[in-house]
Amino acid sequence: MQKVAVVGGGVIGLTIGLHLQQQGHQVTIFDKQGPAEGCSKGNAGHIATEQVFPLATPSLLLQIPSMLFSSQSPLSIRWRDVFSTLPWMIRFLFSARKRTYERSTKAISSLNQSAVGSWYRLLEPIHQQELIKMDGSLLVFESDALFQAYQATLSSLEHCEVEYEVWDKKQLRKRLPKLGLQVRHGVFFPNTGHTLEPYEMCLAIEKAYSSLGGEFVQKGVEKITPNAEIQTAGTTLAFDNVVIAAGVHSGHFVESLTGIKVPIQAERGYHVMVDDHQDRLPIPVSSADRKFIMTPMKYGLRLAGTVEYAGSRAPFNDKRTRLLAEQGDIMLQDGIDKAMLGEEWMGCRPTISDSLPVIDSICDGNILLAFGHQHLGLTHAAITAELMGQMIEKQATSLNVAPFTLRRFS
Questions:
Q1: Global confidence as pTM
Q2: Contacts of residue 261, Cβ cutoff 8 Å, sequence gap at least 6
Q3: Using CA atoms in the order 51, 61, 358, 192, what is the torsion angle rounded to 10 degrees?
Q4: Is residue 74 within 8 Å of residue 374, measured between CB atoms?
Q5: How would you class 24 by CB atoms within 10 Å of its CB: exposed for 0-12, middle for 13-18, buried for 19 or more?
Q6: What is the CATH number of the domain that holds 318?
Q7: Of the residues 39, 158, 167, 200, which has the maximum number of CB atoms within 10 A of its CB?
Q8: What does the pLDDT look like over 203-250, one tens digit per residue?
Q9: Range of the domain at 166
Q10: Using alpha carbons only, what angle is made at residue 365 by residues 108 and 356, rounded to the nearest 5 degrees?
């Protein structure tokens, strides 16, 4: 049995904590905000195994200038933060080069292929399999030209062994009768899923973790030492291992321990809830034209997405949630009842420039790293937990973790 500290109480840290407790280790999770109060609280809830491509693509590079200056764009930048964002953005753009793009695609695919099985292995022992629904998801197209351009992507998905079905207008009307009539094409991904409420899912995981003897300490961590000591306000605690899973806040811990500066950025995503509209769609639906997702959840329909590059402490930008509500109104045949617009939320996705997380160990194996999962934190949480367990127990990992090494930035 190892005595392990996990720094970060989001979905990554919580699943690592539960998995390690299930293995028989003694775990303490540290997070000053409490369980899942950051990016994990309000995400789209999508188990996105079809998203095998890195965020920076050759085609995206051509679109960025026009996207930055359009009020209807899914991409925005807070101009007062542009100079602090610029070094990361340059590395992000360079990652669209063919060799880096192909390497990242292969690495993401390897995590995706193990994602669903690892979730069931985590949830079955605590009888919580119903927390995820593997009913598939749908990508829809309003533009014929955009759908034709997507054919090359479908060929690439086949190469990555991603299963899909192409739905025509007749199939779309039959299966999603409340979807807007302007939608002309759909691509259904059967091996994807979603959770009905990401925050409640995280709380259920934390409850199971605590029932197995895991401890949650609602304190901020001030320092991590190479020999696995945790320093909080006025307290130093010793552990056998420390796992850094603190999202966008992980970088400064890693830099203090290794001198390596990880190119990680707070990529801010938003959601707005439409209360009691969950019956409008049976499965998550993403718009290829409008770059957002609609997910039916326990309490309503969640409209989520967009990308805003800004400092992690920048104020909430309600233009982003208004845009989501406008797009949702267009995408549903009967529109949205504006009186039912409810919770608005923003969270900071921890995005590394090459779209790959850091999954590694440093300091002679005392410190483990599990952060930077960009849009795929929920998807990759359980497989990351398994890899952390294997690394702590000095076992061979179930998949090749070399692409996720910290040393790629040294």
A1: 0.94
A2: 251, 255, 409
A3: -10
A4: no
A5: exposed
A6: 3.50.50.60
A7: 39
A8: 999 999 999 999 999 999 999 999 999 999 889 999 999 999 999 999
A9: 3-409
A10: 15
